[in-house]
Amino acid sequence: MAIQEGTEDVYASLLLTDNYLPGALVLAHSLRDAGTTKKLAILVTADTVSSEVIEQLKTVYDYVIPVERVKNEHPANLFLMNRPDLHSAFTKVNLWKLTQFRKIVYVDADVVAYRAPDELFDLPHAFSAAPDIGWPDLFNTGVMALTPNMGDYYALVALAERGISFDGADQGLLNMHFKNTFNRISFSYNVTPSAHYQYVPAYKHLQSTISMVHFIGSDKPWTQGRQQSTGNSPFTEMAGKWWAVFDRHYRKEDGSTPHLVQYFVKGEFNPTTTVVIAPPPEPKIESWDASKQSPPSDSKPEAANFPQAHYGMSRDKAPYVASDQYLPPVDRPKPIFPWEANQPKPTRVFAERPLDPLPPKSPSLATSTAPVVQQNEPTTPPPANLATGEASAEASAAQGNTWTNAWDEDPSIDKYVSAISSKHSRTRSQGLGVVPTTPPQKSGASLKVTDFPSETERPSLPVTPAPHSRPPNWATGTSEDGDGDQLPAADGVPEQAEWDPLAQLDKLAHQHSEALLEKLGTVSPQEETIGIRGQQIPSRPVPFGSEGAKSPTYVSPSPVVSPVPVKPASSTSTSKILSTSSASTSPPTSTLNKGKK
Ligand SMILES: O=c1ccn([C@@H]2O[C@H](COP(=O)(O)OP(=O)(O)O[C@H]3O[C@H](CO)[C@@H](O)[C@H](O)[C@H]3O)[C@@H](O)[C@H]2O)c(=O)[nH]1
Ligand SMILES: [Mn+2]
């Protein structure tokens, strides 16, 4: 199987981003100006280089070759040399795939040629490169003479995919791959000037042999501006060479220099002198998608379009009234879904109007159901903004309904109050300066505890239910005339006279010991002597070594409070045993007193 070998020789460069455009153009011009006989090619990554820039490249390059960008997915080493911008320098490995070319002399876009080193195409070696100024045993990958072949290509792709590179970029990767096979060529093919250190005598001695100068590092001639090339140091002389080529091709008196080129060159882009501003070549974000992008750098701050920048507190005292659009819709929307049409009846609802509205105003009916005076009178409607709701309040008022308290409907409260009133058969006079309004209570009739006062009692609009007028000291059960009427006793509460605290205490102690003994085992009435019972308490041995020990923390609150059996028959022995057992765990009284201080 014959592999078709490339026949053409090319100088090739690389453009990963638009901002290296001036470098790529100057390189191509410098080679052409130097009279090369070779074609010029440039590899571009179409996803990161704009079409305008590609058009500009086509004006000087014979071939603009789109290639896949090869990104280092393990870029940690790039930070070792502070060049995270070189994340896609692995793209250089695509050079080995371009087998349509016999030989490629690759040159970085930050290189300017003093002369065209066409002799590099005649090297017999598959790979040649010049020493790196930072570590001359290594080669610099800014200038390389290579023979494309798929063997090296796949090997390099494999390294790139695994991120194998000591500097995270192509120079580390290629030095690892061609470590033992590279052909070292003269530094004059890839002179790397430094603004900080230059071996000046060597420069003076060898400058005439320079073929190409390479501006390594993140500062490039086009990013530093023209003034960087002023002075007479070796560095400024070499930077001056770059500017000389640039000026020859892109400093036109007639203003024919493309704005796109000027845009990337410091000091060259002066939009005030141009009528039409060239569109920035960076891909522009037309509409910002907040879910995918950070905000555009030129976007306005939040609330930048507010009518005022400063807002104070409102002095408007009128309460805020929401417009109708904010009120909840009265009519429900037409059902759309089947479950809306076949809805089950709700089991719990909130009442929008009184659940059990009283019948329309009719004196006889009103009196029979509610004997309290206000019920006979038309009720003043409550203010419209009552929590009960404007509409229902008005509707009730229109019907002549009275306002009731829900507790008044509770039959047990009613029953209790009726019991009192039957005891107090005599109707009391009011004595509060209020017109007596309560008619004599009929036995069994409903008795309201709270009520809304009439307009005469309270001319202002009633809002809150007020307590119904009652005789003085009604709650305490005493009256002005000294009549010692009592409220009926609650269930289970003994009469005060029957309450003997000492007797109760004894009873309690008895219950307590009974319950304790009950817990410990069932006892037949015959066995009911404390001796037998005492034997039935399971004895627990004291832990070994703790015999005779006394609890250091337990302090009996008071010997008097200890439960003491009160059974008359066997109380002596019971109390003996219980007090003995209590004494064994309780410290003596002296300790107790000590502890109290
Ligand atoms: O944003 C970028 C960065 C790089 N490049 C291209 O990639 C080359 C390498 O980048 P460069 O800035 O020139 O790197 P150097 O400062 O020269 O750094 C050294 O280290 C790099 C990474 O190992 C090698 O690629 C260089 O050859 C070597 O000189 C450039 O010349 C361009 O061709 C771009 O187009 N856009
Ligand atoms: Mn470079």
What this model shows, in words?
It is a single chain. The chain has 597 residues and is of the alpha/beta class. Helix content is 26%, strand content 8%. The chain contains 16 helices and 11 strands. It has a 7-stranded mixed sheet with strand order 3-2-1-4-7-6-8, sandwiched between helices. It has a two-stranded antiparallel sheet with strand order 5-9. A two-stranded antiparallel ribbon has the order 10-11. Helix 1 (21-33) packs across helix 7 and helix 3 packs across helix 4 (170-177). The longest helix has 20 residues, at 501-520. The protein is elongated. Mean pLDDT is 75; it is low at 360-394, 427-445, 474-483, 523-535, 556-560 and 568-597. Bound molecules: uridine-5'-diphosphate-glucose (UPG) and manganese (II) ion. Manganese (II) ion (MN) binds next to loops.
Q: Could you describe the largest sheet, including whether it forms a barrel?
A: 7 strands, mixed
What is the total tally of β strands? 11
Helical element count? Answer: 16
Class by helix and strand content?
alpha/beta
As a percent range, the share of helical residues equals 25-40%
How many angstroms separate the termini? 111 Å
Coarse morphology: elongated
GO molecular function, one term: glycogenin glucosyltransferase activity
GO biological process, one term: glycogen biosynthetic process
Cofactor: Mn(2+)
Biased composition (Low complexity): 550-559, 567-597
